[in-house]
Task: inverse folding
């Protein structure tokens, strides 16, 4: 019974937001944007003429064609061999002009020594294709040369392998330092926490400035209202992320192979697959977000409650914003040196934890015990913030007039 | 002077304020305020701007906490009874502009413990009743100010409270809608709802109230049953209509002269004898069309007790708008 009003606030907050144009736009447009980003090149690639992708190889060496052809095919060309004869250029040029052929590559003894080759083509290949073609030729030559030396050319050319043996204990499953995941994840956490915490502040401010809060506070405890708003906005954020995650997953699972099929030179994107976080990491990400959101939305609710206008809130939020910006500034350092005592200490400070501990975990430098400890600390910090913010909120939400000074705030907290 | 005509005891009060004081810094907004409203009574809280009406109401509603004194509702801790038993229409009206009308009403019902389905049904009935059928699914921001005010009123009564506290409920409404609202307030009273409303419209208070409480400068000036108050104050006002000179109006007995309905109301000083005035008029050769001891209007009572200055501050011009 006591919670029916909190539920009502949550429902109202959730429904109003989920139905708003802003939510629909940001939720739908973000994935549409991402899909567009991947889909449009696919579309363009499929527009390419069959003939343009037919590539003839004129091999003056007799050894390069077998090594070059698979590489070109991998890059999306239909390859055919053309024997060398004195009129070969004229003949192939004619074929290209007739539209049967996209172009042809001439390789000879010089190619074997320097990797030089000549591409005759009707349309200038884009820079990525140029790189692909060039590396296909040079690798084919290199492979031939290495085989002459009787070494494992394939292993060497594929980049070798670096095995990492950790000398200290780390979180299992994260033993491959992944700068990309660590950095992008931290940045994403910063963004979503900030966006939704500010949404809580705005909602509080709106209620306060349009005065409906008097009616509501006369029917329920201020901290019930605050809790309802935070949970409501939090539920909206989770909904949005869930939609993104699902759409992203589907797009990645089905879209990427399509993209690579159509645009084979992007095959390296497939490596993203290994880099993307698994279920455990995703859960950890959500955990960091939830605590981060609760801590910061509590602070932002208090900021909203003590202000009377957007301009005032803009200024008053600065100290809170700083708490979010500091870790994002330090995140690169922490990813690079995840195990120093400075990194450890900073990442255990609850308000920095979501961003910095994530960076350490994803970067592979945080022991499980420290991660667990950070969650305990965040939990305690959430309670403390709820207590303090609740008191500021309770007094501030009904207060008109000028913004409180720090001593006044302290009195609110003590006396509320 | 305090006239307390209430016989009700302890829990017979819907509202009881004992020695309530509220200060803002050095300014005392409400000073040692005792105020009781018996159940089922409709009571007007009157006073000039800044006299402490809204502060008192906010303390009753728990929005402000008194520095001294106590507030009880229905003889109980107000925090426990307030949510479901009290409907509150604040002076500064706020709505969720982006919400649809019926949703807002349902939400306001829900936070007072009314199930959603019941809230929706009642809300629909009220919208029909107030001529807002067809607006249920419109956003509040699309409504005119007056319509929004009706939505707010519906939100105030949607949980069928036993006590209605309305801060300046009539301000901003056109005369027709003032009448509609007045009628609804009467209906609630007929059902046994206790109603307290603040207003600066003395005539309205006079029409509606059974009790009045006058506040001036943070202090209670009067708190009484209106009928008894008027009877007790009857001796104080003479209505006159006459032909001839008017110098005789000035005299030691007359505190003030107000033009009312084409005639004049002479407000007498305490203890003054109207016979003296009549004699002076006749001596001056005045031909009287009317010389009538009347019930003082609430405005006059207020002036008598709080002083003309306070009445003018209240935004009540010396005499505007006739009696019905």
Result:
């Amino acid at each position: 019974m006591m919670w029916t009003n909190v539920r009502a606030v949550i429902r109202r907050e959730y429904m109003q937001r989920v139905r708003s144009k802003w939510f629909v736009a940001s939720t739908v447009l973000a994935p549409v944007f991402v899909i567009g980003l991947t889909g449009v090149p696919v579309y363009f690639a499929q527009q390419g003429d069959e003939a343009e992708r037919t590539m003839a190889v004129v091999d003056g060496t007799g050894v390069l064609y077998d090594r070059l052809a698979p590489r070109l095919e991998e890059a999306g060309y239909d390859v055919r061999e053309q024997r060398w004869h004195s009129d070969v250029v004229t003949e192939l040029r004619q074929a290209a002009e007739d539209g049967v052929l996209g172009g042809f590559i001439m390789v000879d003894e010089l190619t074997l020594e320097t990797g030089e080759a000549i591409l005759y083509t009707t349309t200038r290949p884009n820079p990525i294709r140029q790189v692909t073609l060039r590396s296909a030729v040079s690798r084919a030559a290199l492979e031939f040369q290495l085989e002459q030396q009787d070494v494992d050319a394939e292993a060497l050319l594929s980049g070798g392998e670096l095995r990492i043996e950790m000398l200290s204990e780390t979180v299992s499953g994260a033993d491959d330092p992944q700068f990309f995941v660590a950095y992008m994840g931290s940045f994403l956490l910063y963004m979503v926490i900030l966006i939704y915490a500010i949404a809580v502040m705005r909602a509080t401010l709106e209620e306060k400035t349009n005065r409906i809060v008097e009616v509501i506070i006369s029917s329920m405890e201020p901290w019930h209202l605050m809790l309802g708003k935070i949970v409501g906005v939090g539920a909206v954020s989770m909904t949005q992320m869930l939609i993104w995650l699902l759409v992203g997953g589907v797009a990645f699972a089905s879209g990427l192979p399509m993209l690579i099929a159509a645009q084979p030179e992007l095959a390296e994107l497939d490596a993203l697959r290994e880099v993307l976080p698994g279920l455990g990491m995703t859960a950890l990400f959500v955990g960091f977000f939830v605590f981060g959101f609760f801590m910061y939305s509590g602070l932002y609710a208090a900021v909203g409650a003590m202000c009377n206008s957007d301009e005032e809130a803009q200024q008053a939020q600065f100290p809170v914003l700083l708490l979010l910006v500091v870790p994002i500034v330090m995140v690169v350092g922490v990813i690079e040196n995840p195990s120093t005592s400075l990194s450890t200490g900073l990442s255990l400070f609850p308000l920095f934890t979501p961003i910095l501990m994530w960076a350490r975990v994803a970067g592979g430098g945080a022991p499980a015990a420290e991660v667990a400890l950070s969650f305990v600390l965040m939990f305690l910090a959430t309670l403390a913030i709820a207590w303090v913010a609740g008191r500021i909120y309770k007094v501030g939400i009904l207060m008109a007039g000028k913004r409180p000074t720090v001593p006044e705030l302290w009195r609110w907290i003590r006396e509320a | 002077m305090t006239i307390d005509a209430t016989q009700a005891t302890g829990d017979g009060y819907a509202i009881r304020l004992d020695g309530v004081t509220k200060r803002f810094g050095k300014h005392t907004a409400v000073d040692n305020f005792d105020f009781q409203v018996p159940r089922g009574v409709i009571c007007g809280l009157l006073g000039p701007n800044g006299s402490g009406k809204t502060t008192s109401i906010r303390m009753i509603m728990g929005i402000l906490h008194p520095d001294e004194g106590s507030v009880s509702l229905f003889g109980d801790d107000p925090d426990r009874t307030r949510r479901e038993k009290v409907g509150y229409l604040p002076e500064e009206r706020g709505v969720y502009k982006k919400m649809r009308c019926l949703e807002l009403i349902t939400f306001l019902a829900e936070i007072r413990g009314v199930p959603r389905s019941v809230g929706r049904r009642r809300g629909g009935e009220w919208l029909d009743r107030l001529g807002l059928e067809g607006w249920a699914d419109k956003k509040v921001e699309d409504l005119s100010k007056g319509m929004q005010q009706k939505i707010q009123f519906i939100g105030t009564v949607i949980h069928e409270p036993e006590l209605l506290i309305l801060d300046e409920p009539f301000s901003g409404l056109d005369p027709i809608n003032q009448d509609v609202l007045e009628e609804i307030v009467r209906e609630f009273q007929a059902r046994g709802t206790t109603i307290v409303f603040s207003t600066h419209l003395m005539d309205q208070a006079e029409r509606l109230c059974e009790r009045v409480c006058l506040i001036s400068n943070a202090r209670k000036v009067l708190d009484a049953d209106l009928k008894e108050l008027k009877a007790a104050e009857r001796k104080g006002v003479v209505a006159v209509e006459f032909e001839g000179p008017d110098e005789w109006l000035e005299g030691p007995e007359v505190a003030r002269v107000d033009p009312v309905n084409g005639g004049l109301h002479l407000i007498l000083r305490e203890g003054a004898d109207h016979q003296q005035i009549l004699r002076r008029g006749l001596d001056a050769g005045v031909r009287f069309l009317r010389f009538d001891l009347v019930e003082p209007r609430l405005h006059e009572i207020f002036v008598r007790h709080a002083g003309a200055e306070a009445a003018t501050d209240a935004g009540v011009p010396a005499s505007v708008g006739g009696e019905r």
Observations:
- The first helix of chain A runs from residue 4 to 18.
- Chain A is about 70% helix and 5% strand.
